[in-house]
Amino acid sequence: MRPIQATVSLSALAHNLAVAKRHAPQSKMMAVVKANGYGHGLLNVAAGLSAADGFAVLNLSEAIDLREAGYDQVILLLEGAFSLQELKIASSYGVDVVTHSMPQLEMLEKSQLLRPIHIYLKMNSGMNRLGFQPHAYEAAYQRAQACKNVRGITFMTHFATADEEVGVASALDVFNQTTADMTGKSSLANSAAILRHPQTHVDWVRPGIMLYGSTPVSSTPAAEYDLKPAMQFTSEIIAIQEINAGESVGYGNRFIATKPTRVGVVACGYADGYPRHAPNGTPISVAGKLTNTMGRVSMDMLFADLTDIPEANIGTPVELWGNQVPVDAVAEKAGTVGYELLCAVAPRVPMRVVD
Ligand SMILES: *Cc1c(COP(=O)(O)O)cnc(C)c1O
């Protein structure tokens, strides 16, 4: 079997959840496990995050998977229900729904639910993605409150710039002013807001990326927040080439040696989820030592510079990201964020769970 593997650490997940709790001790934890648990496997991460008060997912099928695996916490559909049928099934599984638009509100009014459902009424506080405009929020709230299918309402918004210099002050003002005369619980903070904006913590927080040990704030490494990588993405050297100055490596000759160079071929490529845009010099670890990638990433393989790692040979372990190479360091080189790399780990990569 090809030696590539992603190893998911349950103790790292639990540790990172405890870090979120340390920052927001008064708040309930809604662990965001969308996108197959940010690429770690939905049920894998649920096991590591079982101390969470709730789970947030995108698809009804994920909510059902969690319920059928025995999780009886709050489960929230982050984009709500997409049809009357879904709404009915959600209510039968005791799954909560975001309600972010007029059609979703009308669906609640039209449906015949056996069990009324708890909703998260979403406000668009400036991100302009999902949610009722602040001026329309009160009316939506009144309608939801009058709806026999609604058994409770949590106020919710999402910040566009919790990770940026400008912060969340104006969105938070809009939210607080709009909900000032309404009574109910609220949920506002993503990972960046949990780590940077304590005034947003309120009743429920929604940590995502931080649980996986990647930073939500590009200027601050995850380790500075005491976050541990939940995924170690590893493989091995499967071939070695010795090249001279002037010789090149890989498609398009994108790396040309300026001195005698020992090139390691690693069994990992973009079809495994490694970013094709990672340039020469992206950090990679071989035999526990940091070195650089070289040449263009191909579908199934990439190249690592072994010139200063004479002990490396065919079969030597490689870490693409994990404990020695932060996923955020690879992401930065490739012009993206840890979120995208973690979510992109391909289904063909075998996943192993460790304590
Ligand atoms: C994905 C998501 C989160 C989690 O965001 P992170 O930046 O990963 O912490 C929180 N809330 C909503 C609505 C989301 O879609």
Could you explain how this protein is built, in words?
The structure is a single chain. With 355 residues, this protein is α/β, with parallel strands linked by helices. The longest helix is centred in the first third of the chain and has 14 residues, at 10-23. The protein folds into two domains: 10-217, Alanine racemase (TIM Barrel, Alpha-Beta Barrel); 231-354, Beta Barrel (Lyase, Ornithine Decarboxylase, Chain A, domain 1), CATH 2.40.37. The two termini are 24 Å apart. Strands 2-3-4-5-6-7-8-9 form an eight-stranded parallel beta barrel, surrounded by five helices. It has a six-stranded antiparallel beta barrel with strand order 10-13-16-15-14-17. Strands 11-12 form a two-stranded antiparallel sheet. The chain has eleven helices and 18 strands. The chain is elongated. It has helices at 10-23, 34-38, 42-48, 60-68, 84-92, 102-110, 134-146, 169-179, 191-196, 327-333, 338-343, and strands at residues 5-9, 28-32, 54-57, 74-77, 96-99, 117-123, 150-157, 186-189, 204-205, 231-243, 248-249, 255-256, 261-266, 283-286, 289-294, 302-305, 317-321, 351-354. 48% of the residues are buried. Bound molecules: pyridoxal-5'-phosphate (PLP).
Search tags:
18 strands; 355 residues; alpha/beta; Lyase, Ornithine Decarboxylase, Chain A, domain 1; 2 domains; eight-stranded parallel β-barrel; TIM Barrel; binds pyridoxal-5'-phosphate; 11 helices
